[in-house]
Each structure stands twice: as structure tokens, then as C-alpha cells.
Amino acid sequence: xxxxxxxxxxxxxxxxxxxxxxxxxxxxxxxxxxxxxxxxxxxxxxxxxxxxxxxxxxxxxxxxxxxxxxxxxxxxxxxxxxxxxxxxxxxxxxxxxxxxxxxxxxxxxxxxxxxxxxxxxxxxxxxxxxxxxxxxxxxxxxxxxxxxxxxxxxxxxxxxxxxxxxxxxxxxxxxxxxxxxxxxxxxxxxxxxxxxxxxxxxxxxxxxxxxxxxxxxxxxxxxxxxxxxxxxxxxxxxxxxxxxxxxxxxxxxxxxxxxxxxxxxxxxxxxxxxxxxxxxxxxxxxxxxxxxxxxxxxxxxxxxxxxxxxx
Amino acid sequence: xxxxxxxxxxxxxxxxxxxxxxxxxxxxxxxxxxxxxxxxxxxxxxxxxxxxxxxxxxxxxxxxxxxxxxxxxxxxxxxxxxxxxxxxxxxxxxxxxxxxxxxxxxxxxxxxxxxxxxxxxxxxxxxxxxxxxxxxxxxxxxxxxxxxxxxxxxxxxxxxxxxxxxxxxxxxxxxxxxxxxxxxxxxxxxxxxxxxxxxxxxxxxxxxxxxxxxxxxxxxxxxxxxxxxxxxxxxxxxxxxxxxxxxxxxxxxxxxxxxxxxxxxxxxxxxxxxxxxxxxxxxxxxxxxxxxxxxxxxxxxxxxxxxxxxxxxxxxxxxxxxxx
Amino acid sequence: xxxxxxxxxxxxxxxxxxxxxxxxxxxxxxxxxxxxxxxxxxxxxxxxxxxxxxxxxxxxxxxxxxxxxxxxxxxxxxxxxxxxxxxxxxxxxxxxxxxxxxxxxxxxxxxxxxxxxxxxxxxxxxxxxxxxxxxxxxxxxxxxxxxxxxxxxxxxxxxxxxxxxxxxxxxxxxxxxxxxxxxxxxxxxxxxxxxxxxxxxxxxxxxxxxxxxxxxxxxxxxxxxxxxxxxxxxxxxxxxxxxxxxxxxxxxxxxxxxxxxxxxxxxxxxxxxxxxxxxxxxxxxxxxxxxxxxxxxxxxxxxxxxxxxxxxxxxxxxxxxxxxxxxx
Lengths: 311, 324, 328
Hints:
The structure holds three protein chains of three kinds.
Chain A: H1 4-33, H2 38-43, H3 49-58, H4 65-77, H5 91-126, H6 131-145, H7 148-162, H8 175-204, H9 207-214, H10 219-247, H11 251-256, H12 262-271, H13 275-303, H14 305-308
Chain B: E1 4-13, E2 20-30, E3 35-39, H1 46-52, E4 62-71, E5 74-75, H2 81-87, E6 92-95, H3 99-102, H4 109-120, H5 127-136, H6 142-145, H7 155-167, E7 173-177, H8 185-202, E8 205-210, H9 213-219, E9 222-227, E10 230-236, H10 237-242, H11 247-255, E11 304-307, E12 310-312
Parallel strand pairs in B: 3-8, 3-9, 6-7, 7-8
Antiparallel strand pairs in B: 1-2, 1-4, 4-5, 9-10, 10-12, 11-12
Helix pairs in contact in B: 4-5, 4-7, 5-7, 7-8
Chain C: E1 6-16, E2 26-37, E3 42-46, H1 53-60, E4 68-73, E5 76-77, H2 83-89, E6 93-96, H3 110-120, H4 127-140, H5 157-169, E7 175-179, H6 187-204, E8 207-212, H7 215-221, E9 224-229, E10 232-238, H8 239-244, H9 249-257, H10 297-301, E11 307-310, E12 313-315
Parallel strand pairs in C: 3-8, 3-9, 6-7, 7-8
Antiparallel strand pairs in C: 1-2, 1-4, 4-5, 9-10, 10-12, 11-12
Helix pairs in contact in C: 3-4, 3-5, 4-5, 5-6
């Protein structure tokens, strides 16, 4: 009979495809519902009616949306994401050139917040109930409640513009990434610190922690080797999802700092009412999330030995 | 000098005025190479006493409010964190009740045993030594088992692995806190037999905590019975089991079902173990004691030496024993 | 009445193995078990973890679906019943569970826990009658009327077990399956509960299927004992006879493993080697042969049949002979 692993894999693949198709269809449909004449966008504001009609015909803009969607799918199947209606640049090229910026920003932010969240989570768990723990709780709650565009703006205004410690905008050097990454990191650090805290508290109550102390392990070793390894298991999966979401484009932060990333691309394409680019960025983002989901599942099986067994 | 000497240990949970005294003036002593059985039911304070030997009780909520715990003459309660760390494993090692839960689920057992070696016998922290330890505790195919995760082992094998981990640093004292309670009866027998063998081979002292008098009887040289935070009787194991003197010990033995007796009704001890903070006045056992006299509810009894080497916390110990 | 209350015939409960169903492998939790229980009788079911005794107990009360075989209760085959017909029969058999902490709904009051079945089966005409019945049940199990308003977490393990017993008694069942009811309790509390069960049996004539791994406790309550190993019954007989003169090497090992408080006892310990093998791949021939101290060549190949060694005493062992224990 069929190998259950293979069945699981194919099942997964099919569902991923369904998810992607669904996202694409929904976006396409919504785009269609947005007021605004695409033909006019393409042609430019001074175009004559004949040109506009010709454009309508060429781009099949008079056909019902599902016909156009089918045509679009056919196009994607051939590997062609289309061209921007505004700049005529191939969508895939646009995305690929901007990907490195977003990747750099996301990874830097991820590293920054983990480096801070892990020790905070561990120490607040170790000193649970203390003043230290309680104040970090307040700070964490505030940090994850901040609106991203506001925070980015504030940091930019005060630290870059007023104090001149950081470059204000665009991406010309590594230093240009620091402030944007910091804005992102501040938003996530609170959440992760609390998440790690909660998991650590639970783990520290376990019998195997007492057994590790009984062995003569130092408190540092108990915390950072025995406990953390267990507490991080659920955190890693969430981290994967968050990084994937970021890779799909961190719209507000990128925009505020004028970084040429996928986020800015996506935002611009919406302002420009540029369907192929919008579809392209949305699809890219969905692929990132679905892919991350998959990766996270695999990683989970790998890092938690109790699951590896298959039960 | 005895290896372990506990003098008048007092342990409270919580702070005054709400503190509950879980261990009230417990004194024990254990010579090197011998086995002491500590028997009692839930709420007797036996586990709390055992964990305090290496100061493993989380504090808060536990507080050491009195007494001393002398391990090779040094008071554990006054030790610095660094000193404590150095004796844990090297001088005193533990085996716990649920072996599956006491092994770290994300590390292989070979790794965990090696860690025990690295912490105290760095020179011997080799794979070969880990395999030797696994063989010592009777784990079949040890070279392969080194790579196993705890959840891949049965309860009996997990406990053997824990014993290997506890013995790796060559401790002088092994504290076994209900090591067989969670295991099947035939596996229990294996583990008790193993502990006996290992003691003969390695010569460490064992403090065996259990609620099961039969298990303790198999292995122990001396037995101490605890009730409501106090020791109520101590005696050489054989003597205690043949001729228990304290009414609680007698009642406990009578309530254990035996394969031979014919009675269909077990002799149950009336009432229930008093909760912390709700101990009766005078003798803590008196409301449930068949021999209780009015004086028992007034004066808390002290430990009396009924015979050389036997101590009972009951002024009426000489009264005729209850029928079994 | 000579009719057995419960007759189990060739009961099988197989679970598909989670791992590799490509080979259609099953966990043979219960592998062809037959026995009877007479009204008001206690039959003890003994074995270690993984032997299938808990699965068997649950299958008997239809908490689990049997894969094959019959469960005949008061002449009716329960395996053929479904839905409301089965629910109506459920009044007659109940279960008490091992974990006094997990088997009571923490959000329900004791009165609700005990009274729920009364409501379901319409056993009390109104709320007042129901309350009265709950109070009388509480007293039957040695608790107080005032306990009815409290929640499970306010009670000790032994008290919770009493609540579980009251719950089972509420519908006046003819049979109660006790699944390790005292294993999680202290020795002195155990004694109370065992006595309670015994008293209730005398008063109400309830039959028990007493499932446990502690042979001594089982022996105290049971008239007959069944010993299970890897899903099969390996020995069955009258309680005292089985414990005094076991005819199967596994029973002998179980008996010798029970810790005995008398230091002078001359009992020789039979220490079994190894662990219980996996119920997915039971050994060929006699399932016990890899650990058996007296296994012979034919034990590896021929499956021993449960046969009557002496009147009323059955064993599944090639070496079992009347008047002699195999491993002595």
C-alpha cells in the first residue's frame, strides 16, 4: 500500500496549492472590486479613448474577472508573473531585486530581538515575581502594543533626524539597516520575552530540572542548557512564522525608512493600482508563509525527539 | 562519625504567621555503606526530609527554620551555593520517583550520563565509561542504548538509566525517593535487587524512601517511620518488621494486604492523615490510635529508647500489641 | 440464579498501530479472552502494564469498541447494541477509575457529579428526591451531606475515590468494573476503600470486575482471579488456590515479586529478566517464553491453550501439572 509519509507529503502539497490558489483568487477578486480604471492607469491620464479601448482589448479588461483569473493562472504556470502596468518591469525581476533588502532587514531584526528576548525570558522566569520580572512585563506589554509606523517614525525623527546617530532613510550601507531593524525588533521583543518566560516557568517546574540540580549542575547550566532547550521548542516554530511574514514585506517600516524592499514595492503597487505587481507581491508573500509553515513542521519534528518517533 | 546525620530538622512552608511546619524536629543518622529506610505516607514529610539533604527544596516556599544536616560532618544548610553544587552528585546523588519525568526529554541518555561524569569526574567523562555504567545497571545492548532518548525506554530501563546517572560520580550516599512506586511489581523487584547488588559492589550508603514497608524491609538495615512531620519509630529493619512498637507502625502493617492472610476485611486505620497546620494537640496520632489515653491529647510524646537501638514516640509502647 | 451475570466470549480488542499500517500491524491489546462473572461475585483481573487488563475492563463496559467476540450481560449480547438501547443498558454496569484526580469533573459540584446519572436515567421524580438520594449515597460511602456542595479539588485522593464510587452506585448497577481504584492511594487509605467496596458488595449484591496490578489487594476482594499477560489469560482459578499454588510461571513470578513484610518469610524471589515485550509483535509460541525461567523448546513454537489443570483451576502452560507449580 502507499507509504504513509508519502501520503502525508502529497496531502500537504495539495493543501498548499489550494491555499495559494485561494489567496490569489481572493486578491484578484478584491482588486477587481476596487474602483479605478486600470486602462487609464496603463495608458496615462492624457490618453485618447481609442488608445484606452485598445488597451482594454489587449489586456482583456472587458472580460469577467474569473476569465482573467484563469488567464493569469495560465500565465503563472508558464513562469511568467507578468509586467508592471506602470513601469513595464517584469514582476519577478522587481521582486527579486528587492528581496535581498527585505531579507537583510528581517534577519537583522530577528537576531536583534532574539538576542534580547532570550536572556530576558530566562531571567524573568528565574526571578519570577520579583520587581525585575514585573517591570519587564510592563515594558513587554507596552512594546508589543506600539503601532509599527508610529514607532518607526518616532525613532527616525528623534534618533536619526534630530540626534543624527543613524542615517535617516534609504539603504546605502549596513548602518542604514540598524534603525529599521531596531524598530521591528522593539515590536517583537516584548512578545518573545514573555513567550520564553512562560515556557521557561513551566519547564522549570519539571522533575528533570530538579534532577539536573541534584546532579550538581550550576544554576546557569540548568537554566541555559537543560531548561532553555525545552522551552524554546514552541518558540522556534513561532519564530519561523514571524520571519516568513516579514519576508513577505514589512510594509510600514520599509516605507518609513524608504528601503527598497518588497514591502515598499507592495505598497507602491497598491497606490499605483498596478494589478500584476499587487498580485505578484501577494503571491510571493503567500508562498513565504505556506513555505514557512512547512519548514516549521519539519523543524519541529527534528528538534523535539518525542515527535521524531512518529507517535 | 556517621556519613549522614540529621539533627532536629525543621522545615516550614510559607512565612509566619501562615507558615506550615512540614518537618518537625526530625533526627536521623546513617553510617557509610548502610541502608536506612524512611517509611511514611503522603503528608508524613519523608520526601521533604529527603530532598533537603542536598537542599533541593525550592525556597520559597520551603524554609529551613531549624536543625542541621551534617554530611561528612559539614552542615548542608550553611553551605554556600558553590559548595552545594560540588557535593551534589559527588557526595550525595538522587534517584527519583518517576524516572521518565526526571530525565530531560530532549537529550540522549548517554549525553545525560556523560554530563554527570563531566561535572565531577572530568577525567572519566568518556563514552566507554558511559557504556560501562549502563552495563553495571543491567541495561541490555548498552552501546546502542547510549543514543536513546528517555521516551524510547520502558519504565524499568528509565529507572536503571537514572541509577546509572546517579552513580556515575561515585557518590557516598544515594537517596532513592520512592524509586519503584511508579513501576510494575516485577520491575520493582528487579530494581530493588539491582540496588542491593550495587550497594554490595560499590559500597555507597542508601537512604530509601517509600510508603511500602515490604520493599524497605528487603533492603534496609535500619528503618525510621514518619508520621505528620515527625519520626515515630526507628529500629533495625528486622526488629521493626517483626515487632513494631508504635501503634501507627502496627496499624500500617496491619493495613497492608498480604497474600497469605485469609481476612476479607483489611484493618484500616480510622480517620485520615492530618493536614499540615491542622495537627491534633498532644500526640499527632492520638485521634486514630486504638490505645489512646486522655494524656495523649495533652502532652506531645518524646522519642523514648525502648531498647538499645530502638526508639519509639509513644509512652504506651509497652502496652500489649494489637492483634495482626 | 445459576445464570452468569456477565459472560465474555473470545473477546478481542485490537488497535491499529500508529506507526506502520502498511503491514496492517495491530496492537493486540486483548487477544481472545473468555470468562464469566456470577451475580454478586468479585472476579479479580491481574497483570502488569501493557497486559491489556485496562483495555479489557473498558471493553466490557463498552467504553471501547471490541474488535471481535461477545459480551453477554444478563443474557443479552452487548456488542450488538447501539445508541439508545445501549444507553438504557448502561445503568446496569458502571466503572470506577484509577485516577481520583482526573476522573471527576473539576467544575462540577459533588452533588452534580453523583446526581447526573440519576437525571439521565430518570431515577428520581424531582430535584428534592434527587438531592435526598445523593445524600444517602454520600453516607453510604462514608462522606458527609455537607460535601455535596463542594468541588473535587477540596478533597483528598481517598475521598475523591469515594465520590467516584458513589457516582457508580447511583444507578444501582449490577456490575462495577473497578479499574485500579486503589493504586494511586496511600496504604492506609487503600484499606478504607477496599473495605468500603467489600461492604457495599455485601449490602447491595453488586458484582465486581476488579482490575489491578497488586495481587495482594486483588486477592483480598476476589473470589476468583484471572491473570493476564500480553492480552491473554494465562491462569484462572479460585483466589486463594491460585495464590497458594500457582500453576503458571508468570503467576509464580508475580507472587514472588509482591513485597512481603515478614522478614522471616522463606519465599524465594523469582526475578524475571527483561521487560514486557511489545503487544504489536508478541513472541511466537507461548507469549511468556522469552522471560520464563523454565521454558522448554516446545514453548517457542507451540501456543499453549488455557486448559483445566485441576477442577476450577486453569492455566495456559505446557508444563502445568496438577499438584505442582512449574517453576518450583
